[in-house]
SUMF1/EgtB/PvdO family nonheme iron enzyme (Streptomyces lancefieldiae), 328 residues
Amino acid sequence: MTRAGLPANPNDLADREAMGLPRSFVSRTDHVLLAEAHRKLAGREPEHLAAAAEDHLLPFTERLAAGSLLGLLEDPRISALDPAMVEVPAGTFRMGLDPARVAATAQEWRHVGVLPEWIRKETPEHTVDVARFRLARYPVTNAEYRRFLEDTDERWLPTSWRFGVYPAHLSNHPVWTVPPEAADAYTRWLAGRTGRAFRLPTEAEWEYAASGGDGREYPWGEAFHPERCNTAEAGPLGTTPVGIYPEGRAPFGCDDMAGNVEEYVADDYRPYPGGPRVADDLARDEKPYRIARGGSFTRFGDLTRCRRRHGWYSKPIYAMGFRIAETP
């Protein structure tokens, strides 16, 4: 807290402090229950584990255990050259935020240091037409990204891979942290390998897919529910296997559009039509920065809002990944 009693800017805090964590050890996962879940599911076929990982009737520890076991096997949901895609129909929607709602939205998240100017980037609300497209059901995983690196001479090693070593046990977790140029290179590689029109989604496409185009605040509705996504509020303080938060699924069927890792889109930051240019912490040396959406396991739920515009900042707490889109 600042002397004035207001929350400090998270970018001015140490990472654990910005995540609301004490200096001493803290665990968010009941390791006894998790161990029991692993024992219960051990030996099951991958198809059974995949179904369990996305079964909203199972407790979180069982979904996590199923996804973790899949990470050690070959997850049938993951295919680098044939990713699971969701059809997103064409539509017209109202993108962004009414300026009259900025103060109330900032106040709602004031306790985690959100400033009004960060929300002002979402204004004004404006009408956008979106053509039919496809969006990956999951963000790009470590396993898929490894295939990209093996097939190319690219050296975009994720900083989350300690010493550049591939984390085999996290094969079905989203890849992070990579720069936007790596995401661009990945989509070019995948398009070239498959002959399909893969790319990053535009910012408008991402918001439309996350909200279903009906103006909802979060992919699941109007109120924030920490149990529906992997964020600093209730998550296990690390990435999770993709798809294990089925109650947080977006309207068209995409998983992990709230939490887990932030997702680059194709667009650099620019004001919306008629909106203000906001020079916040992300604007450095007047250079454009790539927009990211969706929040992450290191950040609070304000970033899971469908309208929230964010981006990369040079701190480990920024967990940056991406998902792919495809032009039919």
